[in-house]
Amino acid sequence: MRYLYQDHPNFGLSVFATMTLFIGVVVLFQQYEANVLDLVREEATLSVLLFVGVFALSIVAVPVSAVPLIALGVQVWGVWVTVLLSVVGWTWGAVMAFWIARYFGEPLVRHLLSEDIRFQIEHYVTHHRIFWTIAVLRAILPFDGLSYVLGLIPHVRFGTFLAATVIGLVPFCVTMAYLGTLPLSYLLTGAGLLVVLVGLYVFTHRNHRLKKY
Length: 213
Known about the structure:
Blueprint: H1 11-31, H2 33-42, H3 44-60, H4 67-77, H5 79-104, H6 106-112, H7 115-126, H8 130-140, H9 146-152, H10 158-179, H11 184-212
Helix pairs in contact: 1-4, 1-11, 2-3, 3-5, 4-5, 4-10, 5-9, 5-10, 8-10
């Protein structure tokens, strides 16, 4: 699985940026909790639709990440409702991306993802059990253009794709939702550890690239 990242120098930084925004959402909610809750109560249906819609959009628009919103959802609706809404939103977006790729084909996907990432994902799916490979990839790559690549692979059936997507998303969403319930001090400690891990990742990656040349 590591081969999906070894040529992706910004992966560690993107993870760090996402978690920083995640913590930022928690901090902002604590400051404006009453206002946010009043707004959600007044526009309950619209709030749910917007939440799910943003998650769907984050799959279709590859560079966008909706992960920080999970922290907001947990504070508003609780863990399990947030998990449900997140899975529904991301699955909806994944289905749209899958059929966009099936309909428009490689010319469109070529503009969204690098050739290396497309090749690595396709190679991995082709040479392993399709269902569980998709589920595992979805659990670690919920918004990295995976659905577009899978839509280009002819032997990936839609039913398999849909079921594996849901199963893969659930553990990721549950994990992130429970992180959203942790005290701020725990999150800041985790962020500090993440800084160290990202630094080690970037350092190791650069050394690996230098050795190749």
